[in-house]
Amino acid sequence: MKTMQDSRDEIEGLAKRLIKAYFVERDYTSLLSLISERISWVGAGRVEIGYDRRSLIELFARERQTYQGGWVISDEQYHIEQLGPDIAGGIITLTVQSDLTGGVAFRKPVRFSGVFRRERDGWKVVQFHHSMPFEEQAGETGFNVEKARRDYMEIERSLRQMLEQQGRKLQEQDGLTGLLNRPGFESRCREALAKPSEKRFAVLTFGVNHFRYINQLHGFDVGDNVLRSVAQNIQDKCVEGELCARLEKDHFAMLLTYSATKDLEQRIEEIRDCLLDEAMQQELRIHVTFAAGVYPIPAKSRRGVRQMLDKALIALQSAPREEGASRYAYYNDALETQLFRRNDLMERASDALKNGEFKLYIQPQVDLKTGQVTAGEALVRWVTAEEEIIGPDEFIPLFEENRFIRDLDFYLLEQLCKEMHGWAKQGLPPVEICSNQSRRHLCEAHYVEKFCAVLDKWQVPHGRIVVELTESAFVENDTEMYALSRRLHERGVRLAIDDFGTGYASLNVLSMLSADVLKLDRSLLQDFETNARSRVVLKKVVEMAHETQMQTVCEGIETKAQLDYVKSIGCDIGQGFFFSKPIPVKAFEKLLLKQRQ
Ligand code: C2E
Ligand code: CA
Ligand code: CA
Q1: Contact residues of ligand 1, CB 6 A cut-off
Q2: Sign of the CA dihedral 483, 489, 493, 495?
Q3: In 20-105, which ranges are continuous DSSP H helix?
Q4: Phi, psi at residue 399, to the nearest 5°?
Q5: CA–centroid distance, residue 445 to ligand 2 (Å)
């Protein structure tokens, strides 16, 4: 364990090396090795030189231009104060004298002060300031070294105060953007909320959408610039009493004040619209959007700031996802219940798979010309030990987030093929079964090979399985999706475009992809009786599908009228509650057996 004394010695050693490099050797390289990559302030006299390494390099270069020789130093005094385990400040007074070789005669006391921080590779200088006595800088500085030495106690106290403030600032500051960091935000929020105020407060937290993509495409420097720019822009939007912070990576937080709810709404929209200047967006050819969550803090709330941030985050996670658009959501208690449910399902999923709680259901599909069940769609149900039946809409989106979906889809495919193998052994007429496959399989290596290996293991002819891929998946990941569907096709697996009519690029998908089956989404059927346009769309889509040699399946047929209509426009296959709900696979088998008789 290093003691405070060890640290003091290290810092003093660093300060001595700094003085030597700066005044005696006048050597850039050794100077820079002592300076933090994230130096945040450089000053001389009363002038602020800058906020980064470059400023220090420029300052040093200027000083070397004025006088190229070295200095002889004497009367060095080091006063180092450690303010915390990783932060210290110091003041160094010394007298410097020109060595006469540089053509300058100069002998004056100098004050040097700095802030030091412990970084991964030891203590580094993070702030740097030096000045000469008042008269030498033509009134530019108030420093008088003789008086300073006499009043050392006084100086030390004020220095300590100053350093404490600076130390606090540094500890609470995010090195990249200069905004508050997470601990800083939390402690400043606590202070702000403790003060009496007429205003109402809300915590806003947001992430920059697709920030990883910006980094990948343009490199980390551009990524950093984007973050700095966002930081600057949101800071500019803060009014008195408000705070803004970068919590980590591309994740920011703000404490906002407002009077009426509609003002809050307006503030959030202002922030959404100011994230990145138009010029920068154009230059980088990126459109920066955010996903945000808002927690309006109830009056006299006793919650801790961390809990408030958590609630804003819960709201963020619930914000509706829409590609390419900013989105935000407000916190409410139901969201927390939902989150609890999600976490609970996630935690139970692996065991449930092992215990066989995921059951294969099949919804029959009917040939509209003959009225026979010739196919079906495999759909999963989670039947828990307590016999609760959980529908896939509740858990599939969760499993897609953490890739558990791969295990589940393969598990169900295996169940399906096993059953189909049994049907063949019983001599049932062949049926085609549609299998929903998640878009998350796109990034999996050898997916197609693994998929076909399951079919082969159970001797299921590839052509009996129809893989359903949703239309929206093609819109989002077009290249990978087309490649995947081509590879499945090459292996003789049939392809269906699911939920046709709900995505944005329906027609485009049709022209690019040679699918075998087009599944018309049930939303297209919903208003066909009252909406003449819907009727035209349905009819034309069926025509178009036939002209491109695709079979059409109409989903969600619930009424006789709907059935009659889809028949009248020549649709091939019908699926919906009118015929049957999804039923357990064994019940489907019975239905096939009965049909054979
Ligand atoms: P989907 O692929 O569009 O499946 C059709 C959904 O519509 C099914 O809901 C089905 O029960 C429902 N449906 C069928 N006929 C009617 C009808 O006449 N009226 C109404 N209102 N609904 C009808 P389900 O089973 O809840 O599945 C929801 C979604 O979950 C599916 O939508 C599919 O995207 C996904 N899914 C289901 N099973 C799996 C699976 O094993 N793997 C993957 N990756 N996704 C699955
Ligand atoms: Ca489907
Ligand atoms: Ca569908």
Answers
A1: 363, 379-380, 391-393, 396, 405, 409, 412, 436-438, 498-499, 522, 556-558, 575-577, 582
A2: positive
A3: 28-32, 53-66
A4: -70, -25
A5: 23
Q: Which two tokens mark 255?
A: 């404490």
Q: How far is the CA of 277 from the centre of ligand 2 (A)?
A: 42
d(CA 258, CA 197): 11
CATH number of the domain that residue 201 is part of: 3.30.70.270
Whether residue 466 is found in the same domain as residue 484: yes
**The two three-digit tokens of residue 34, written as one number:** 């002592």
Mutate to test the pocket of ligand 1, among 377, 383, 394, 396 (most ligand atoms within 8 A of CB): 396
Domain end marker among 171, 191, 224 = 171
Is residue 64 a contact partner of residue 26, using CB atoms and an 8 Å limit? Answer: yes
Closest ligand to residue 411's CA: 1
With contact defined as beta carbons under 8 Å apart, do 109 and 130 qualify? no
Closest ligand 1 atom, residue 437 Cα: 44
Ligand nearest to the CA of 499: 3
Ligand 2 centroid to residue 591 C-alpha, Å: 21
CATH number of the domain that residue 403 is part of: 3.20.20.450
Of 267, 263, 423, the C-alpha closest to 254 is 267
Structure tokens at 475: 């819109």
Number of the ligand 1 atom closest to the C-alpha atom of 391: 26
State whether 300 and 370 are in the same domain: no
Whether residues 158 and 186 share a domain: the answer is no
Ligand 1, atom 33: nearest CA belongs to which residue? Answer: 436
Name the residue range of residue 405's domain: 340-596
Packed helices 182-194 and 305-318: angle between N→C axes, nearest 10 degrees: 110
Ligand nearest to the CA of 396: 1
CA of 498 to the centre of ligand 3 (A): 5
For residues 364 and 327, membership in a common domain is answered with no
Number of domains in the chain: 3
Select from 365, 419, 555 the residue to mutate for testing ligand 1; criterion: most ligand atoms less than 8 Å from CB. Answer: 555
| pLDDT tens for each residue of the chain, 597 residues long | 556 677 888 999 999 999 999 888 888 888 889 999 888 778 887 677 888 888 888 888 888 777 777 888 888 888 888 777 788 888 888 888 877 665 566 777 888 888 888 888 889 998 888 877 655 544 444 444 454 455 445 556 666 676 677 777 778 889 899 999 999 999 999 999 998 888 899 999 999 988 888 888 888 889 999 999 999 999 999 999 999 999 999 999 999 999 988 899 999 999 999 998 888 888 888 788 999 999 999 987 878 999 999 999 999 988 877 767 889 999 998 888 888 898 999 999 999 999 999 999 999 999 999 999 999 999 999 999 999 999 999 999 899 888 899 999 999 999 999 999 999 999 999 999 999 999 888 677 799 999 999 999 999 999 999 999 887 777 666 778 788 888 999 999 999 999 888 765 567 777 777 789 999 999 888 888 888 888 888 899 999 999 989 999 999 999 999 999 999 999 999 999 999 999 999 999 999 999 987
